[in-house]
């Protein structure tokens, strides 16, 4: 198996099996059927955020969106606030997705137009959005969400959470098809691999990246809707820590932070690994501090593996050019 990306997928499958075995060793409750449904409850929110982060990274720059968790929190508060003002829930969710897109557009403007490095630009909006969420609510959640809305994240179809079927799986399929079989997907990879060459071939690189940051905001809005359905309340800290988890998932899944390398299928496997690890540690009563340490070690390992894959691909390109 000489393809580095295929090797990465093989590695991820092995890591997922290892995480499952570790969970079974840490807690006898891990192998129960109910644990699978509990584990899959976490997957859609983390998964869609990981996909959004993957898209931003793929286009290069280098690209990263550290505001994605704060965007999720702010959109959730906006939806709950609109509903409290009498706006129908479905319409409030649609407006929330638009707000997510606008928040993503702020990132896009900073990164693509003003040319602020994505790390600094999205870190600034992370603080701005987080501060705004706290200021608008005084740190208190907004309740009053209708019971029927809980079906999205709390309901089950064939024992699997509804939002797995209705949000996570469809989004993964759509993004996979877009990246693999469409011109937009080829442009994203081209921009990530060689920005100048992509520009000379007619790709509007800055417009492409601008759109992906906006799409990242919309996807964060989807995560907000699922979280709102799950908790039946909007919390100003709902997205706390999600930015680093989404980066971990994207990088572990094979997305190169400098662009041009990555697959949605890798992101899907990565979110399963991360959630399996989290649930295993929770069931074993491992403290939150050690859970964060484990995620941190996983991120370090992901970056090391990411660099190794990048070096092998660059070496292959050099050999092909000689």
Automatic annotation (TrEMBL):
PANTHER family per the UniProt record, alphabetical: ABC TRANSPORTER PERMEASE PROTEIN YPHD-RELATED-RELATED
Cell compartment(s), UniProt: Cell membrane
Residues of the signal peptide: none
GO molecular function per UniProt: transmembrane transporter activity
Keyword S-adenosyl-L-methionine carried by entry: no
InterPro entries: ABC_transp_permease
Protein name, as recorded: ABC transporter permease
Provenance organism: Palleronia sediminis
Main location, first listed in the record: membrane
Entry superkingdom: Bacteria
Pfam families associated with the record: BPD_transp_2
Keywords for the protein's UniProt record, in alphabetical order: Cell membrane, Membrane, Transmembrane, Transmembrane helix
TM region positions: 39-59, 66-83, 89-114, 126-145, 157-179, 210-232, 244-261, 268-284, 290-309
């Amino acid at each position: 198996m000489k393809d580095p990306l295929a090797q990465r997928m093989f590695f991820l499958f092995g890591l997922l099996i290892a995480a499952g075995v570790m969970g079974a060793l840490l807690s006898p409750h891990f192998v129960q059927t109910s644990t699978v449904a509990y584990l899959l409850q976490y997957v859609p929110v983390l998964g869609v955020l990981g996909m959004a982060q993957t898209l931003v990274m793929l286009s290069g720059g280098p690209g990263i969106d550290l505001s994605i968790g704060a965007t999720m929190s702010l959109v959730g508060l906006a939806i709950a606030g609109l509903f409290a003002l009498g706006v129908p829930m479905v319409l409030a969710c649609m407006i929330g997705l638009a707000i997510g897109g606008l928040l993503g557009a702020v990132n896009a403007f900073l990164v693509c137009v003003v040319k602020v490095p994505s790390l600094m630009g999205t870190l600034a909006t992370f603080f701005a959005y987080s501060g705004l969420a706290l200021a608008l609510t005084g740190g208190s959640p907004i309740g009053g969400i209708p019971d029927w809305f809980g079906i999205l994240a709390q309901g089950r179809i064939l024992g699997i959470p509804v939002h797995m079927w209705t949000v996570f799986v469809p989004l993964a399929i759509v993004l996979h098809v877009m990246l693999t079989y469409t011109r937009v997907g080829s442009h994203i990879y081209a921009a990530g691999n060689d920005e100048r060459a992509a520009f000379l071939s007619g790709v509007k690189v800055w417009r492409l990246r601008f759109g992906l940051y906006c799409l990242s905001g919309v996807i964060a809005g989807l995560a907000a809707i699922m979280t709102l359905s799950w908790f039946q309340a909007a919390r100003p800290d709902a997205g706390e820590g999600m930015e680093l988890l989404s980066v971990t998932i994207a990088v572990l899944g094979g997305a190169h932070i400098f662009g041009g390398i990555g697959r949605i299928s890798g992101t899907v496997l990565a979110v399963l690994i991360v959630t399996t690890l989290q649930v295993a540690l929770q069931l074993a009563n491992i403290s939150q501090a050690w859970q964060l340490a484990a995620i941190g070690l996983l991120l370090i390992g992901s970056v090391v593996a990411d660099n190794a894959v990048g070096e092998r691909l660059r070496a292959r390109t050099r050999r092909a050019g000689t």
